[in-house]
Amino acid sequence: MPSSKGRMLSFVLVCPTLCSAFLCTRRSLSSLDVGRTTKMSAAVTGRLADKVYLVTGSTDGIGKHTASRLAEEGATVLVHGRRESAVREAVEHVGGGKGKVEGIVADLSSLRGANHLCDEVLRLTDRLDCLLNNAGVFEADFRHSDDGLEYTFAVNVLAPYVITGRLLDLLAKAPGGGRVVNVASLSASYSLDFDNLQFEKGGYSDHASYSLSKLLDIMFNAELARRAPKGITCNSLDPGTVNTKMLRAGWGMGGIPVKSANDQFYLATSDDVTDSSGEYYVSRRVTTPPPPAEDDEACRRLWRVLEELSGFSYA
User: Fold this and answer.
1) DSSP E strands: which ranges in 111-209?
2) Residue 63's CATH number
3) Active site residues
């Protein structure tokens, strides 16, 4: 279980140079922490009271809703975001449930940020029952990350590869086996060009980049399921057409209310999927993924690309 002292909510900053700001934040939160400690001093109850979850990108939208539902069921939830103010607000919101909540600030567009998140998770807990790779971006314009990678690819694809690999040992310690849930999309592309994974040959658009990243997430999940230690299950899903900021920005349309978007929560908690792994779910049903995700050699090739670009090997 998380090793942070007492029941105090913690906020972890991505940049060491911000340590002084971190200390000021802890002091400024003292009155909130006292109130929260009082509320959480009673024994945590709920069907997930002995579970620990990490939800990346959980300061808004479906991620925040999923984190809230997990906390309501008594789980310990590690909330993540890239801005301190957003993480602070999300922790307060999610912490209204029965569970314990910790906050981590990390920018997943860089390998440094992804590794920092993992470092903090390893500091906060000695096991993880479920990792939800929910964080994602939809970028209107082409730009590079700090590592020189196409930004959407860096956040949506490479970061989950690194985070999952570094946290596999924690997932392996979960009683009954840990779970990995990779958030994909029905808008995933049905084809790919390995020579243009980061639009090196041009053709960039917000939709093309996002759709490609979601295909690669499904492919990553398929190969992960073959490589993960025994007992760890790995599934990807389309979370539904949900009225989020991303949906409105990219498609100019609404969807079901965020409070009704419970498919991620389902894959993370349901006994119905205990033995399911390597699958792609849509509306809680196993669904045939885009053709490249059924091509074992293509999935292995993607894995080699991710290994080379990140400098990280699961072996």
Assistant:
1) 130-133, 179-183
2) 3.40.50.720
3) 210
